[in-house]
């Protein structure tokens, strides 16, 4: 019997920011198909998801892809993203994926995931000197050269593994701050977009293990300094936006976000007040604005949508780098669905 390694991945119950967990299941003669992944269980008392006296939580497989790195060792390997269920089969309170109301996948999402590569010895971003700071921001965005781009071996290997896994990565680039990078993932369906972001995050964390480099997802790891924070901009559309054909529809949808700022910020990642200050290409956390090509707005209307005759998508720039894409998508969908066109 041929063996296969299935890495079951899930989100724990830690607050305010959940972390990735995973464990390996060995299967015989596995087909590689999601429908042939069995439900599994884990000790929820060790992940802040259950009390010790009734600790079993269930893992429901929802997305599968090859694990290119592990498969190189010889045995076929797969990454299996899972939802967490209570022992009675209902969605666990930590399960953001289950809150997405988009049964027909009408909503398409593209997430721009920023992060810092972190030197664990100096406790600073890769490229920062042990004492003090590097040259100010400016030369690092989309940079090339050893004096400006730090950690390219890591991000290139991560990109290759994501592509071999079948994740729909649309691009990568060095970001504004030293040691800061970004990858973008798009999917036609909110749940799958979230699945792919989490699997890509998982692969990056494992890449960090290999190189002895931390992955810092915090939205403002350098605190109150003149260095950019990290976001996870959410680009979204539905049939209405993709076919609107007029400015009024875009205005109406954007304006629907204004009364529910607090509800969105609540799921857009912890410590976002440190990042959403009105500086560094952000709007203030307690304000709402939108505009064409405005990267200082809460929601940016891409110029491409205007040039296509007001047909396209919107970019919510407020979600931060540590936010749960499932919860971000769920809240955006709720707001947009409440608009009467």
From TrEMBL:
<dbReference type="GO" id="GO:0005524">
    <property type="term" value="F:ATP binding"/>
</dbReference>
<dbReference type="Pfam" id="PF03951">
    <property type="entry name" value="Gln-synt_N"/>
</dbReference>
<keyword id="KW-0547">Nucleotide-binding</keyword>
<comment type="similarity">
    <text>Belongs to the glutamine synthetase family.</text>
</comment>
<feature type="domain" description="GS catalytic">
    <location>
        <begin position="87"/>
        <end position="341"/>
    </location>
</feature>
<dbReference type="InterPro" id="IPR008147">
    <property type="entry name" value="Gln_synt_N"/>
</dbReference>
<dbReference type="GO" id="GO:0006542">
    <property type="term" value="P:glutamine biosynthetic process"/>
</dbReference>
<dbReference type="InterPro" id="IPR027303">
    <property type="entry name" value="Gln_synth_gly_rich_site"/>
</dbReference>
<comment type="function">
    <text>Catalyzes the ATP-dependent biosynthesis of glutamine from glutamate and ammonia.</text>
</comment>
<feature type="domain" description="GS beta-grasp">
    <location>
        <begin position="4"/>
        <end position="89"/>
    </location>
</feature>
<dbReference type="InterPro" id="IPR027302">
    <property type="entry name" value="Gln_synth_N_conserv_site"/>
</dbReference>
<protein>
    <recommendedName>
        <fullName>Glutamine synthetase</fullName>
        <ecNumber>6.3.1.2</ecNumber>
    </recommendedName>
</protein>
<dbReference type="GO" id="GO:0004356">
    <property type="term" value="F:glutamine synthetase activity"/>
</dbReference>
<keyword id="KW-0067">ATP-binding</keyword>
<dbReference type="InterPro" id="IPR050292">
    <property type="entry name" value="Glutamine_Synthetase"/>
</dbReference>
<keyword id="KW-0963">Cytoplasm</keyword>
<comment type="subunit">
    <text>Homooctamer and homotetramer.</text>
</comment>
<dbReference type="Pfam" id="PF00120">
    <property type="entry name" value="Gln-synt_C"/>
</dbReference>
<dbReference type="InterPro" id="IPR014746">
    <property type="entry name" value="Gln_synth/guanido_kin_cat_dom"/>
</dbReference>
<dbReference type="InterPro" id="IPR008146">
    <property type="entry name" value="Gln_synth_cat_dom"/>
</dbReference>
<dbReference type="InterPro" id="IPR036651">
    <property type="entry name" value="Gln_synt_N_sf"/>
</dbReference>
<keyword id="KW-0436">Ligase</keyword>
<dbReference type="GO" id="GO:0005737">
    <property type="term" value="C:cytoplasm"/>
</dbReference>
């Amino acid at each position: 019997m041929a063996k296969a390694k299935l890495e079951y991945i899930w989100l724990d119950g830690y607050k305010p920011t959940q972390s990735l967990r995973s464990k390996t299941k060995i299967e015989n003669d596995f087909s590689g198909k999601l429908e042939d992944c069995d439900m599994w269980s884990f000790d929820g008392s060790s992940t802040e998801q259950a009390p010790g006296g009734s600790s079993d939580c269930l893992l429901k497989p929802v997305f599968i892809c090859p694990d290119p790195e592990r498969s190189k060792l010889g045995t076929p390997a797969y990454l299996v993203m899972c939802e967490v269920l209570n022992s009675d089969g209902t969605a666990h309170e930590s399960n953001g994926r289950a809150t997405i109301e988009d049964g027909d996948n009408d909503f398409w999402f593209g997430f721009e995931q920023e992060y810092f590569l972190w030197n664990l010895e100096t406790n600073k971003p890769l490229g920062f000197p042990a004492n003090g700071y590097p040259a100010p921001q400016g030369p690092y965005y989309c940079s090339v050269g050893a004096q400006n781009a730090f950690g390219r071996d890591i991000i290139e290997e991560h990109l290759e593994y994501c592509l071999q896994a079948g994740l729909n990565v649309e691009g990568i680039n060095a970001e504004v701050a030293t040691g800061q990078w970004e990858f973008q993932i798009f999917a036609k369906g909110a749940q799958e977009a979230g699945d792919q972001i989490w699997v890509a995050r998982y692969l990056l964390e494992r890449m960090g293990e290999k190189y002895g480099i931390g992955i810092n997802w915090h939205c403002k790891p350098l605190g109150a300094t003149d260095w950019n924070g990290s976001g996870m901009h959410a680009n979204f559309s539905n049939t209405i936006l993709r076919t609107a054909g007029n400015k009024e529809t875009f205005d109406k949808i954007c304006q629907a976000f204004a009364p529910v700022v607090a509800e969105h910020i609540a799921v857009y990642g912890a410590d976002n007040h440190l990042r959403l200050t009105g500086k560094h290409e952000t709007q203030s956390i307690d304000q709402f604005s939108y505009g064409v090509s405005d990267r200082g707005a809460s929601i940016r209307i891409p110029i491409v949508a205007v040039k296509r005759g007001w047909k396209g998508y919107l970019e919510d720039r407020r979600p931060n780098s540590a936010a749960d894409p499932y919860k971000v998508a769920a809240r955006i969908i709720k707001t947009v669905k409440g608009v009467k066109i």
